[in-house]
Write a structure and sequence with these properties.
Blueprint: H1 5-30, H2 41-64, H3 72-99, H4 107-112, H5 122-154
Length: 155
């Protein structure tokens, strides 16, 4: 099966921009959740910041898709890891807010704003770890694709 790489880039650009904009909207809506609705309000603040910031990151990276010199399989991995990484970041904050339990990975935040039910949530920790790994993969592929683009166009 032959994949039209330009069509794939067009489609991934569209979905990345659309989902990035949606993530910004989700971040804004999450920011409207009142403190009384959750166990740990700092988690809502975290989720609001992470969803909006990662949505902006996604939009910016979506604008770069045309410049990424990656094979179709790498572009698909790039898209999947970008989606997983950016969405799980804010999701960890939402989980922490409603459960009132955070992760030991959030030491400074826990110190300044102690969660009511402790810092040993496996779900929050796993979500943050998944976020970190997948965002780094997406960013690494972005950097590699941009480097290859310059290298390819110079040849």
């Amino acid at each position: 099966m032959v994949i039209d790489i330009e069509r794939l880039k067009h489609d991934l650009r569209y979905w990345t921009l659309l989902l990035g904009t949606l993530q910004i909207i989700v971040g804004c809506v999450v920011g409207l959740i009142p403190p009384s609705a959750v166990s740990w309000f700092r988690g809502i603040v975290m989720a609001h910041i992470e969803f909006t910031a990662n949505g902006v990151l996604m939009v910016v990276l979506g604008l770069l898709v045309r410049d990424l010199a990656l094979k179709a399989s790498a572009l698909k991995v790039w898209f999947a890891t970008l989606q997983i990484g950016t969405w799980t970041n804010g999701t960890a904050g939402v989980i922490a807010a409603f459960s009132g339990t955070t992760s030991t990975l959030m030491t400074t935040l826990n110190e300044k704003f102690p969660p009511p039910h402790g810092t040993d949530s496996v779900l929050v920790t796993s979500t943050l770890q998944l976020c970190g790994v997948t965002i780094l993969i997406a960013l690494g592929l972005t950097l590699y694709g941009l480097y290859q683009s310059r290298h390819t166009s110079a040849s």
